[in-house]
Amino acid sequence: MGEFDRLLGGGLVPGSMVLIGGEPGVGKSTLALQIALQLKNLKILYLSGEESAEQIRIRADRIGKVHDQCMILNDTCLEIILAKMEQVPPGLIIIDSIQTLYSEHLESSPGTISQIRDCTTRILQYTKDRGIPVILIGHINKEGHLAGPKVLEHIVDVVLQFEGDRHYSYRILRASKNRFGTTSELGIFEMTGTGLREISNPSEILLSHGDENMSGISIAATLNGNRPFLIEVQSLVSSAVYGTPQRSCTGFDTRRLNMLLAVLEKRAGFRLGAKDVFLNIAGGIKVDDPAIDLAVTVAVLSSSVEIPVDKSCCFAAEVGLSGEVRPVSRIEQRITEAEKLGFKKIYISKYNKKGLDPAKYKIGIKFVSKVEEVFTHLFG
């Protein structure tokens, strides 16, 4: 599974412990089972305290071919589990979920802080000595954090968050801790009837393919970790009906939007103070790359003046408080990705010129220094 391997920094390390957290129904158990079914040359022990062996078998038949090396154990007592491991040493252990395990040495019920801490520590001691990798599945609480003591995140080597909106079929896997690689990477999957499908080209899901030109839509060339991808920024600007203008964002920082609107008001002379502004990042993902700033301002103004942005244009630049268009990192990767997807023009900061050779790209590169220049180019 290329997306999972890349996120871990190359694959599962012997003796490592990986914790996968996420909301109920997002696909944690499906992901773990797919990993188990794809590792056909390894003896796998799948511990399930939440589903019966028959339920797991039905899911396994749906998402992949079951192999003899995958053993399912429906016990949640730690002492019995450790005894089974001694009898048949596994090459990989999957625990679904860590909150269901309990130790007979403790009187507290499963899922309590003391039980989670004790069970995780004892499993870690057993597997580290023998070089067995472990994948733990963990619940999250109502605040969106991993349930259990914070020490649980310190014990494990990798913490992965599995995110996804129930109304979308796409799922995002992020690393919030990784001892073997970067935490800035993410993996994107699509939930299908036959399991999770890897999305090797995220731009295919983040760009709409409609023929109709609509105002309020622009394309941003962003980076997440080492991966460039293009996303669609959608904006709707309308007169404030209820007196106080609304500012609403999905997938983007609202405070950042307020700052950009203030820049447009003060530096570019656009009167947006009495208007509602709604912003949405297509695909249900969250973006914190500052290079999306220019695309956001263009989308807002496109909706405000009711003029569509040319669909062959994309944007990659940060916007400063004085209205200047600031340079962003790794501009070559962004330009190459835009060119690969068939875009004709990309607007970037003129301060990104240094060391950049526009002649080697087929895409037209427009260098700008102020937001006003971009609006003059696009809207006249």
SSE topology sketch:
Elements: H1 2-8, E1 17-22, H2 28-38, E2 44-48, H3 53-63, E3 70-73, H4 78-87, E4 92-96, H5 113-130, E5 134-138, H6 151-155, E6 158-163, E7 170-178, E8 186-192, E9 195-198, H7 203-206, E10 217-224, E11 227-239, E12 247-250, H8 254-267, E13 275-281, H9 293-305, E14 313-316, E15 318-319, E16 325-326, H10 331-340, E17 345-349, E18 364-368, H11 371-379
Parallel strand pairs: 1-5, 1-6, 2-3, 2-4, 4-5, 12-13, 14-17, 17-18
Antiparallel strand pairs: 6-7, 7-8, 8-9, 10-11, 11-13, 15-16
Helix pairs in contact: 2-3, 9-11
Task: Describe, in short, the structure shown.
By secondary structure, this protein is an alpha/beta fold.
Outline the structure in words.
With 380 residues, this protein is α/β, with parallel strands linked by helices. It has 2 domains: 199 residues, P-loop containing nucleotide triphosphate hydrolases (Rossmann fold); 175 residues, 2-Layer Sandwich (Ribosomal Protein S5, domain 2), CATH 3.30.230. Helix content is 29%, strand content 27%. The protein has 11 helices and 18 strands. The strands form 4 sheets. The chain has a 9-stranded mixed β-sheet, with helices on one face. The protein has a 4-stranded mixed β-sheet with strand order 10-11-13-12. The longest helix has 18 residues.
